[in-house]
Design brief:
alpha+beta, Arc Repressor Mutant, subunit A, 3-stranded antiparallel β-sheet, disordered C terminus, transcription regulation
Length: 282
Amino acid sequence: MGKRSINADICFWRDPDLPGVEARFSSYNEEAFRKHVHAAYSVGLVKTGRTSFFLDGEMHDAEAGQVVLIEPNVVHACNPERDSCMTYRMFYVDETWFRSVGQEVFGSGAASPRLPRPVVDDSELYAHWRELHEAIRGNRHRLEKESLLVQGIADILVRYGELSGREQDSPGGEGAVEAIKQYLTSHLESKVNLDTLSDIAHVSRYHLLRLFHAKVGLPPHTYQNQLRVDLGKRLLATGTSISQVAQEAGFVDQSHFSRVFRQFTGATPRQYQRGASPSTVK
């Protein structure tokens, strides 16, 4: 009896907060693809197994923990090696995202990015794009997803891309960062987006992320989550129900609130509420 095909284990996500981006998770133990092209940039994360894939007339190998980078409209076919089960996360990112971030990184004269290395060993890059995948799957806030995407594209371009021009000096300073912090503080329940923060700071999205992290030590979405958790702690201390706290603090739902709350406090909202009182919470 032959091995059971698991090529049916496939999921897709198309997030309205990230137009032009499609994420997928797939598991294959036999050939599934003929040679084909995508109009978008492809960023793949090999989770398990190995693949020997065809790309533009050549064969390349990739295995678990590696990142696969494929330019738009390049003929390729990625299938698992014989007797191997390959699972992977994949992103298809519209060329406009790469072009716009490339211009933010390297200057307005930069051409469409090229990715001459189809397989890279970069655990940090792998972990970053995996986090973006989880953010899309978990329907996290728009600002977090946008920040992860822009930074992820920028990391690919700076480390492995070929563009003309050079990186701009980061403009802005304390005033821009303080304006962003004030905006985030006053919009805890809003679905803040990166373009809005870029307009406030008068810098590009890429330089906004660099500037904010350099001054604050956190990306904007993490800083806003910290503010939301702080508000959640105050509300929990008054006896407000966890579901109501999650809503008032601007989280997607109670599950999202509980997960983020634990990341920041090391305790669940219920554990915190049981031990908190208005006189002891800071």
